[in-house]
Design brief:
The complex is a heterodimer of chains A (342) and B (291). Chain A has 342 residues and is mostly helical. Chain A is 73% helix and 0% strand. Chain A has a single domain, classed as ABC transporter involved in vitamin B12 uptake, BtuC (Orthogonal Bundle), CATH 1.10.3470. Chain A has 14 helices and no strands. The longest helix of chain A has 30 residues. The model of chain A has no long low-confidence stretch (mean pLDDT 89). Chain B has a single domain, classed as ABC transporter involved in vitamin B12 uptake, BtuC, CATH 1.10.3470. Chain B has a two-stranded antiparallel ribbon. In chain B, a hairpin with a 2-residue loop joins strand 1 and strand 2. In chain B, helix 1 packs across helix 9. The mean pLDDT of chain B is 88. The chains are: A mainly alpha (342), B mainly alpha (291). Chains A and B meet through helix 6, helix 11, helix 13 and helix 14 of A and helix 3, helix 4, helix 9 and helix 11 of B. Chain B: This is Simple sugar transport system permease protein.
Chain lengths: 342, 291
């Protein structure tokens, strides 16, 4: 079983690398040149590593939430929408607090509001699941698009969150969050990394402990294995399902709050930029292990920074990274059959 | 031209790709395969269509390219969902990302020096020859694979209970391959429709979610043909309204129009109004040993 998993992941990584080399050749750079540019973009500067860490934090939070719901047998496809809900709520809170609110009050408040909003967004799907039996896959998927449109709505309407329009150049985005609501930097030289990374790490550890060491974790696992068996044991199946999906939404919402509370500290039209979907993929690839969540989230974060440099330094389209990532996902998802038969 | 006529014509034009893509998707979901990759198949079709038309100078050759590319994209999805029994949602989203990355990469290499893309011109009201052909395909699928034909019943059986269908001797895997490939063809045609009859060019992420909208139309239509077609028409009009609302003197935030299809689908699927039943075996892979 172990060796089999190793073969699957190793083979997928090799195949993805090979595809990457071909894409580099197609873009007119030698694979070595492209590899060097990618490496430079990933680890070449404190700035690159810092922005990778910020991306990884958001992906990690979403994937951690996904893992909680997945333990109870629910598939949360709605990270993107929950992220949007969290971002909107964080922006509302962050621009309306008094300017002088200290960080110790403002920041936890903004993150909590984001958590609550993301949770509430997921709770719609969770409620439909437990009360009407509607597939959470479909409802969370639909709610993604509603959430994305909600962001569009609030940043375009002056009555809502749009900054005052002074000229035709005014961007459709919110005003910046007050000082106190912004995530502090980790304080590394020249690095934009914020404490979001620590928050994500704490969340992952807390969830790992919850799932492995507590009775709640065992109950969730029981529900995930068999709803009927869990119900016969007298477990509150619906309540467990509802709260696992809702807290998954909360974590994704918090990721949205963290994104808004990071430079440039505004809610803009495309602030979510696919984080929710990428976070879902991270959660799926990690297959329930929170250590794997951390590893895959870091890898995806690094690849995102690397891809930008690939375009700048080697002239290879940045979309190459997206292609390699999706191939990696397809290979690993497709190889499930190997693990099943072992 | 009055704004209402413009709205109706725009709605019909934008409904055609939706109808095409959701016709394939509806059949596929009835057979138990959720193709989230409709979006990717459409985008692939749009790209291949634009490349083909631009290379050969003939829009029909472009359509041929699009169909071939759509078939390839669908083959990938079919191998993953049917043979390898991979998670249909993960692979669907990944296939969409692959199509987005692949076509963006391809466009960087191919559409460099302002290449022109020959397209179709309207012949029948707002519809082009390709649009009419698309509607004919939709009608043919609706007739041949309705619940009143043997084929249609076989499709439903494969999606309702694959194990039982297999016991009665139906070739479940072949049916599922067939419906996914069909979705690839209709989605690619929908993509070609967008690239060759609407935009007359290829731009990054040309489909921008229309493929997902087609999946949503099937859900909003509760897996039935006429309601799905109605949903497509409505979604087409909602899209057209984004452009014509100012002409009609309506002040509606664009975002409200953008989100309306998804809200409608949410209400339809939640069973709050009437009952909704998804095919029982939707997204459940089948293999013979699993008894």
């Amino acid at each position: 079983m172990r060796t089999n998993a190793f073969v699957v992941y190793g083979g997928a990584a090799l195949a993805a690398l090979l595809a990457g080399a071909l894409l580099a050749l197609g873009g007119g750079a030698s694979p070595l040149q492209a590899g060097a540019a990618l490496w430079e973009g990933m680890f070449g500067s404190a700035y690159a590593i810092g922005s990778s860490l910020n991306t990884a934090a958001a992906l990690g939070l979403i994937a951690t939430g996904f893992t909680v719901a997945h333990r109870a047998g629910l598939v949360n496809v709605g990270g993107e929408g929950q992220l949007c809900a969290g971002g909107i709520a964080a922006a509302f809170a962050g621009v309306s607090l008094p300017d002088a609110t200290p960080t110790l009050v403002a920041l936890p408040l903004v993150l909590l509001v984001a958590f609550a909003a993301g949770g509430a967004w997921a709770a719609i799907a969770a409620w439909l699941k437990v009360s009407r039996g509607t597939s959470e896959v479909i409802t969370t998927l639909l709610l993604n698009f509603v959430g994305l449109a909600m962001v569009l709505l609030v940043v375009h309407e002056e009555g809502l969150l749009r900054q005052p329009v002074t000229s035709s150049q005014t961007l459709p985005q919110s005003e910046p969050l007050i000082e106190g609501a912004r995530l502090p930097l980790l304080g590394l030289e020249g690095s934009p990394a914020t404490i979001a990374f620590l928050i994500a790490a704490v969340a992952a550890v807390a969830v790992a402990v919850l799932l492995r060491r507590t009775a709640t974790g065992t109950r969730l696992t029981a529900v995930g294995h068999s709803v009927t068996a869990a119900a016969r044991l007298g477990l509150p199946v619906r309540r467990l399902q509802f709260w696992s999906l809702t807290s998954a939404g909360g974590l994704a919402g918090m990721a949205g709050g963290a994104l808004v509370a990071t430079t440039p500290f505004v809610l803009a039209e495309s602030f979510s930029s696919g984080y929710g979907f990428a976070g879902l993929v991270v959660g799926l690839l990690a297959r329930g292990s929170l250590a794997a969540v951390a590893g895959v989230a870091l890898l995806f974060g690094l690849l995102a920074s690397g891809g930008m440099n690939l375009q700048l330094a080697a002239g290879v389209p940045a979309s190459s990274v997206q292609i390699v990532q999706s191939l990696l996902t397809i290979f690993i998802a497709g190889a499930v059959i190997l693990r099943r038969t072992s | 031209m009055s704004a209402f006529v413009e709205l109706a014509e725009g709605g019909v034009r934008l409904a055609v790709p939706l109808l095409l893509a959701s016709a394939g998707e509806l059949v596929s979901e009835r057979a138990g395969v959720l193709n989230l990759s409709v979006e990717g198949m459409m985008l692939t079709g749009a790209f291949a269509g634009a490349v083909g038309a631009s290379m050969t100078g003939s829009p029909w050759a472009g359509v041929g390219f699009a169909l071939a590319a759509g078939l390839l994209a669908a083959l990938l999805q079919a191998v993953l969902s049917v043979t390898l029994r991979a998670d249909q949602i993960v692979t669907g989203i990944a296939a969409n990302a692959l199509a987005l990355g692949g076509t963006t990469y391809g466009a960087r290499l191919f559409f460099t020096d302002g290449r022109s893309v020959p397209g179709f011109e309207p012949v029948l009201g707002p519809l082009t020859v390709l649009g009419c052909a698309g509607l004919a395909v939709v009608a043919a699928i609706g007739l041949l694979l309705s619940r009143r034909t043997g084929y249609g019943l076989a499709v439903d059986a494969a999606g309702a209970d694959a194990v039982a269908a297999d016991r009665t001797g139906l070739p479940v895997a072949a049916i599922r391959y067939g419906v996914v490939l069909l979705t690839g063809l209709t989605s690619a045609l929908a993509g070609a429709q967008l690239a060759l009859a609407e935009v007359h060019a290829f731009t990054d992420n040309l489909t921008a979610g229309v493929g997902y909208l087609a999946v949503v139309a099937v859900i909003a239509g509760r897996w039935r043909a006429w309601p799905t077609a109605l949903a497509c028409l409505f979604f087409g009009i909602a899209q057209a309204l984004q452009f014509t609302a100012p002409l009609l003197g309506l002040h509606l935030p664009t975002a409200v129009l953008v989100m309306s299809p998804y809200l409608i689908a949410l209400v339809a699927v939640s069973g709050l109004v009437g009952s909704s039943r998804a095919p029982a075996g939707l997204t459940v892979p089948f293999h013979r040993e699993s008894r």
